[in-house]
Amino acid sequence: MANNYFLTILCTTFIVVVGGSALIRAMPPQNPIQCNQTGCILYNSYGVWDDRKTCHVAAAVYPTTEEELRLAVANANKNKLKVKVVSKFSHTILKLACPTARNGNAVLISTERYNSSIVVDVANLAVTVDAGVGLRPLIDRVEEEGLSLVAATYWEGVSIGGAVSTGGHGSSWWGKGGAIHDHVIGVRLIVPGNASEGFARVLDLKGDDPLLNAARASLGVLGVISKVTLSLERGFKRSITLNFTNDNGIEDEFMEHAKRYEFGDIQWYPSRYRAVYRYDDRVPLDTSGDGVYDFIGFRPILAVIPETVRALEKAAEATKNQNPKCIMATLSIAYRKLIANGLKNNLVFTGYPVIGHQGKMQTSGSCLYSPQTDKDSVCAWDPRIKGLFFYESSAILPATTFADFIRDVKKLRNINPDNFCGVDMYDGFLIRFISKSDAYLGQAEDSVVVDFNYYRADEASTPRLNEDVLEEVEQMAFFKYSGKPHWAKNRKLDFAGVKDKYPNFSKFIGAKNVLDPDNMFSSKWSDEVLLGQAEKVKEDGCALEGQCICSEDRHCSPGNGYYCRTGLVYKEARVCRYSGFRSG
Ligand SMILES: Cc1cc2nc3c(=O)[nH]c(=O)nc-3n(C[C@H](O)[C@H](O)[C@H](O)COP(=O)(O)OP(=O)(O)OC[C@H]3O[C@@H](n4cnc5c(N)ncnc54)[C@H](O)[C@@H]3O)c2cc1C
Ligand SMILES: *[C@@H]1O[C@H](CO)[C@@H](O)[C@H](O)[C@H]1NC(C)=O
Ligand SMILES: *[C@@H]1O[C@H](CO)[C@@H](O)[C@H](O)[C@H]1NC(C)=O
Ligand SMILES: *[C@@H]1O[C@H](CO)[C@@H](O)[C@H](O)[C@H]1NC(C)=O
Ligand SMILES: *[C@@H]1O[C@H](CO)[C@@H](O)[C@H](O)[C@H]1NC(C)=O
Ligand SMILES: *[C@@H]1O[C@H](CO)[C@@H](O)[C@H](O)[C@H]1NC(C)=O
């Protein structure tokens, strides 16, 4: 009965999605910095930070040239203000873009208007861009010159400065690999200076300057990146085929898959026993095909659809019934298969392989565009609607331990596959590849990144359905298999001990102490993560939001029947499990 009801709504929803996509008009994301006479508030793209606290800042400045950027740093330094840089996009999920005030005074430097210069050096296969330039304008400009940027995040709504600073990546073990910062060959960095230097200095880091290895992925704590120089390659096309198949042997195949296909990835839906292998190779420019990848999850969507999905999720959560989530997972996978995840040979998907220019295939985000006036459709997570709201976990594991991680997750899945429906109705587990890096905060070896999104409650104190299962996966990834967190995603607990996981971490801190000795660019968040100064006090309910690992029941939600228990497969895990209204 309940299922029929859900099915009816879902089918209607999907008909609206399929049938309505031609009519869509969109409202672009809102500006992350909102100011009035009393000050400013910084939001991220989801409208809520990891700790759910508001980020208040005294003022925001919008430099348009490198000299204005330098003056902004000088001015802040002279006045002993804390500083953070933020892009027009502010897609960081973690609070790393929020300055913590010294004497209540902090300033945000926005790169929103520092985005005019893109200089392509065709002869040397390189491009130098202002840090505020978006990934899309950069790629389009480079392609006009017959060149290609090889690595990109899958989502194009990032600035170059932001993407490089947080280790933004796509997927590749070939060449320089899938992380954008490994294609960086130069950084112009503005750091505090003394009075005779005018309170700020511009450093031009290139070649084998060791500071470049610090600046490649710098979390915004070294200073302001003014310009980034990236290496390019001769233009090429991509040929993509998606193989929707079963998930037997992912653990035995991923390595070969990554070696065989330059841009391969794997999407794994454990509850459905499904895997989607992306066969993705570069092909010469003269190969016929004018395809586009307009990823389904990043398209503008009628607000009513994510609102309906959210309402269904909340109903499923409230009744502790995972069936609706399983139905949504099944329908979502079927729909994705039908439309090839958003790959289009021309205007629509007509069959594999889909072949198109690198610039049209490497990244997408059509929900970013369209006129401000039309409010019918948005990015599915737009905070102005009651749409999708979720956690994003992203663990970077050494390739050598990844198979064991998959085996463990399968063991947990086999106990009750439906426990994974909540993650499968999003994107399941997205498995991508990044290479060994020279960056101090890059990877010391070829690695596998696994991303998974899942429901986040409206209230911090509300436990989630099958909370324990994904907590166990998370703790396996980060602690049993020593996974490293993506610098812009994840929940706070995942950062515990991160400094011991990077062999060159102390070199990074050394560079930070040289470039920013007075910690102008440090914040509460960076001190906690980089210096290991996390608060030791665990508040009631802290495990629900990933602010801690539970060690007592009160860290979960005993009032709702969730107690701190051991993991089912990874016995060292401590997770919040629903066991009814008894503490036995
Ligand atoms: C929908 C979505 C999809 C995503 N997909 C991917 C993906 O496929 N792969 C991936 O790796 N990541 C992905 N991410 C994460 C994303 O790459 C990071 O959040 C990235 O940092 C966003 O860039 P931004 O320009 O919005 O940065 P911001 O959020 O503006 O800034 C990020 C950090 O960099 C610092 N910073 C920014 N500009 C500068 C500068 N000029 N100088 C110094 N510091 C600076 C900021 O202080 C902040 O600490 C995704 C995020 C979202 C929301
Ligand atoms: C002005 O901003 C402050 C914080 O910066 C906020 O508390 C207040 O609600 C805002 N007022 C208006 C009218 O937007
Ligand atoms: C810079 O940003 C403005 C406003 O967002 C935009 O119109 C312009 O196209 C951008 N320029 C480049 C080179 O990206
Ligand atoms: C300022 O810094 C420069 C370069 O680091 C140094 O040579 C100079 O002595 C410093 N001046 C003062 C007044 O500290
Ligand atoms: C899809 O993947 C499966 C598992 O790796 C493989 O057996 C099958 O041959 C593949 N199909 C195609 C069309 O490549
Ligand atoms: C990082 O550390 C490793 C191990 O100590 C070392 O081999 C490597 O050269 C270092 N990388 C850089 C860029 O310093």
UniProtKB/TrEMBL annotation:
The keyword Thylakoid does not apply. GO terms for biological process: L-ascorbic acid biosynthetic process. Keywords: Ascorbate biosynthesis, Oxidoreductase, Signal. GO terms for cellular component: membrane. It catalyses: L-gulono-1,4-lactone + O2 = L-ascorbate + H2O2 + H(+). Its EC number is 1.1.3.8. InterPro entries: ALO_C, FAD-bd_PCMH, FAD-bd_PCMH-like_sf, FAD-bd_PCMH_sub2, FAD-linked_Oxidoreductases_BP, GULLO2-like_C, GULO_Plant, Oxid_FAD_bind_N. Residues 53-235 form the FAD-binding PCMH-type domain. Residues 1-22 form the signal peptide. Pathway: Cofactor biosynthesis; L-ascorbate biosynthesis. GO terms for molecular function: D-arabinono-1,4-lactone oxidase activity; FAD binding; L-gulonolactone oxidase activity. It comes from the Eukaryota. NCBIfam families: pln_FAD_oxido (TIGR01677). Belongs to the oxygen-dependent FAD-linked oxidoreductase family. This is L-gulonolactone oxidase. It comes from Sesamum indicum (Oriental sesame). The lineage of its organism: Eukaryota, Viridiplantae, Streptophyta, Embryophyta, Tracheophyta.
